[in-house]
Input
Amino acid sequence: MKKLALLLTLIASFTAYAQGDAEAGKAKSTTCAACHGPDGNSLIPANPVLAGQHEKYLFKQLKEFKLGMTTGGEQGRYNAVMAGMVAALSEQDMADLAAYYATQTAKPGVTPESTIELGEQLYLAGDTERGIASCIACHGPRGNGTSLSGFPKISGQHADYVKAQLMAFRDGTRNNDLNGMMGIVSAKLSDEEIDAISKYVGGLH
Output
């Protein structure tokens, strides 16, 4: 019975993604543009690039921002600004917005030369002696992640945003990652290593 319930839940989730209407999402995205840009290419380093992100991942984050808002941060993902933005959104609105941003093209980022050596080492190989998994295992060689597995695209993402999220995973203020994997990895990273990884992924494309 539990397996049937889980199967029905998964089917319902994928149905919601399939029903996302990119054109409708474009019309609904006008309130998002101030922070994320009209096409999802944010010009503000603290705000994430949404363009080209996986539809399933975007939909999940919007739902979890709303859950965080309704539970006062006890569940989901809480952000004071996003709480206000998602408050009035229906699941259809979220699906439409996710569909729209997923169809947009992200602008390529850059990797500062000073962070390549350490960033590349951690991204490609991690650190087996310290039990740090490589980033490539989940996010792929070009940082594109995988839609079906729920791992986000991180290539071209703003370094400031990536750094803030790694810090949040490390200190436990963000814990909506799959099986707690990001919390486990980030807990073993130093500030220098987080800074290097955050800057390194910007140029992966």
